[in-house]
Amino acid sequence: MGDYKNEKTSDLGASDTGPVVLEEDGNSSIQTAETLLRLIPVGLCVAALVLMIKDSEDNEYGSLSYSNITAFRFLVQVNGILAGYSLLSAAFTAVPRPMTMPRAWTFFLLDQVSTYLILAAGAVATEVAFLAYKGDVAVTWSEACGTYGHFCRQATTSIIITFLVVICYILLSLISSYRLFSKFDAPAGYRNKGIEIVDFEMNRVDS
Amino acid sequence: MGDYKNEKTSDLGASDTGPVVLEEDGNSSIQTAETLLRLIPVGLCVAALVLMIKDSEDNEYGSLSYSNITAFRFLVQVNGILAGYSLLSAAFTAVPRPMTMPRAWTFFLLDQVSTYLILAAGAVATEVAFLAYKGDVAVTWSEACGTYGHFCRQATTSIIITFLVVICYILLSLISSYRLFSKFDAPAGYRNKGIEIVDFEMNRVDS
User: Fold this and answer.
1) What does the DSSP 8-state code read for residue A62?
2) What residue intervals traverse the membrane (chains A, B) (predicted)?
3) Chain A residues within an 8 Å CB radius of B61
4) What is the pLDDT of residues B180-201, one digit of tens each?
5) Which of B5, B139, B195 has the highest number of chain A CBs within 10 A, making it the mutation to test binding with A?
């Protein structure tokens, strides 16, 4: 519908040439913030991932590694996926380019899925760490952190870092939904139509 | 917003008097969908909550109740909160009224928080149910569902219902972010300015 206006006066907004692109107004500052917000999780995810992967403890009672606990393996996998996605998307947003609707949709959907994934991974790992610290007498699950104190502390650090990633991604999905939905006014059509009619009448009067 | 076109020359839009209101165009169908999407979780949350609260099992090995497990208590609390919020917000959206910016922001933020809460509660309860079914030998957590089969099945049903609520809330937070951010074009201003300038020139020509 951007092309629509162009046919009339060819000047009602530079943002209407080619495919629908976003206004450039407050875009550069948002773009910088977004690129930063996508770079930060790269480091955080790698840190959380490495901390968790290197998390194992051997002692006289036995040995415990992150790979023995499903929730911690899930945390490692999700952090790995998000490190990759964050890096790719940061590289993509760093270069100024028109944000078309398919791109806005892609970012929006991937950001949403990422946010839900990392939140679920963090929550699940927190619960297991909580059980490891406190145990659950009724289910006969004994606490494990008395025996594996170092293991538990390192896992907790990794989980805390994961929640920093969660915060970044909550902000990122806010930005990408802003970017997507702030374009949705145009298809609703009242503004363009308004211009159209007025424009038509002007041409008539002018000729 | 529809009014906007009609009043083109007389005054520049009801949307400029008083608080910014949303277009009514595709709004009624979205509003119906939204009210429905807010009513469904009321029933689902209450079902998940009741199922979980009534979930306890006594047998020769001992007794187990939802209240013994932190994750399940959290699930009950979050389902209770969301049942209340869903009912209130459904009642609010059922009545057609102008959606002002503060209202759009309130819905957006509460929907986001609700979605994250119910997702976290569902994920955490799933992990505990998983541990109850499978156990974790390395941490010496034995499986509990061999002994408390009925308890586990009822908890699983409650968790599945909770994930239906998650789906509803993912859609709801999509709708409320669409509603909030689709207004963000207007303050950016280029479209309104376009209309304004043309309108001014028309008045000049007409007189």
Assistant:
1) E
2) 36-54, 74-95, 107-133, 159-181
3) none
4) 888 775 333 333 333 333 333 3
5) B139
